[in-house]
Amino acid sequence: MLAIGRSGSPATNGSGDYALAFTTAEMARRGNAMSELKELPNDAISPIFQAAVEATEESIYNALLKAKTVSGHRGTIEAISIDAVIEIMRKYGRDVNFIR
Fold first, then answer.
1. Do residues 61 and 88 share a domain?
2. For 71, phi and psi rounded to 5 degrees?
3. Better-scored residue on pLDDT, 15 or 39
4. Whole-number Å distance between alpha carbons of 13 and 48
5. SS3 9
C-alpha cells in the first residue's frame, strides 16, 4: 500500500498511519489458546514497516525496469526502455541513481 503510492512515509510507529491485515490461520488469532505467536513491542514495528515498504518498492522497480519484451497469442508487449525512463526522470529533476 505504501510502496505503490510512495509519499515518503514508511508508516513509522506513532505516525498515525494504519494498516490492516487478515488471516484465516487459527494459530495466528489473538487470544487463541493454541496461539504460540509472540507479539512485538509497539516500538519494534517501525523497522518492519520500513523493510516491507523498501522490499515492495524494489520489487515494483524490478518488475517495471527488468521486464523483457514478450509475445503471445494476443500480440507483443514491449519492455520499458530504461534509457527513456532515465531521460524523463532527469528532465523532471528526479533521482536516477537507483536505476541499473
1. no
2. -125, 145
3. 39
4. 10
5. coil
At 36-88, the pLDDT tens digits run 656 778 788 888 888 888 888 888 788 888 889 999 999 999 999 989 989 99
Q: What share of the chain is helix, strand, coil (3-state, %, to 5)?
A: 35, 5, 55
Cell 532515465, residue? Answer: 86
Mark whether 50 and 80 lie in a shared domain.
no
Which residues does 27 contact at the CB level (< 8 Å), separation at least 6?
34, 35, 36, 37
Phi, psi torsion values for 65, nearest 5 degrees:
-95, -15
Write down the pLDDT at residue 37: 59
Distance CA 97, CA 32 (A): 47
One-letter identity of residue 54: E
Instruction: State how far the Cα of 20 lies from the Cα of 40, in Å rounded to an integer.
Output: 16
C-alpha grid cell for residue 100? 541499473
Domain total for the chain? Answer: 2
* pTM across the whole model: 0.55
In this structure, what C-alpha cell is assigned to residue 6?
510512495
